[in-house]
Amino acid sequence: MKTIIVIVVLVATLATVWGHHHHEHDDDDYVVKTREDLLKFRDECSTKLNVPADLLEKYKKWQYPDDELTKCYMKCMFKNFGFFDENHGFDVHKIHKQLVGAHGAIDHSDETHEKIAKCANKKPEDTDPCAWAYRGGVCFINSNLQLVKSSVN
């Protein structure tokens, strides 16, 4: 039991230190995105990547095929939302704030945060940022963490 307590304290301390020294995980300045933001980001990413209309229609229905274009589209969307960068990966706190921030207080120790962290921490063996973003995105969807669908109305 003492070992568990020591581990918990150590993890909490490291999380606190990490939070103070790494601004990318500070969600205080994160502004919850709206449906208008989603539409703007969708337009920007589909234009930048030349996403065909039929594929864009699939994305609108939360269908994301396992192909290179879709993977890079997801990365683009997550980057525009402020959830992902190619060096650090996903920002769990910002994703959590997007999910529940518009609806009240955020408890970063709740089940939702755990689900986000589980998906976000899966860095692929390869270094392809598109694949990394896609794997996290598919995990979010499979964990019923539909980031925009439920939080952007």
Overview of this structure, please?
This protein has 153 residues and is mostly helical. It has helices at residues 2-21, 35-49, 53-60, 68-81, 92-100, 111-120, 129-142, and strands spanning 84-85, 89-90. It has a single domain (33-149), classed as Recoverin, domain 1 (Orthogonal Bundle), CATH 1.10.238.20. Helix content is 59%, strand content 3%. A two-stranded antiparallel ribbon has the order 1-2. The model is unreliable at 1-25 (pLDDT under 50).
Task: Record keyword descriptors for this entry.
153 residues; mainly alpha; Recoverin, domain 1; two-stranded antiparallel ribbon; 2 strands; globular; disordered N terminus; odorant binding; PBP/GOBP; secreted
Protein topology:
Layout: H1 2-21, H2 35-49, H3 53-60, H4 68-81, E1 84-85, E2 89-90, H5 92-100, H6 111-120, H7 129-142
Antiparallel strand pairs: 1-2
How would you sum up this structure in a few lines?
By secondary structure, the chain is mainly α.
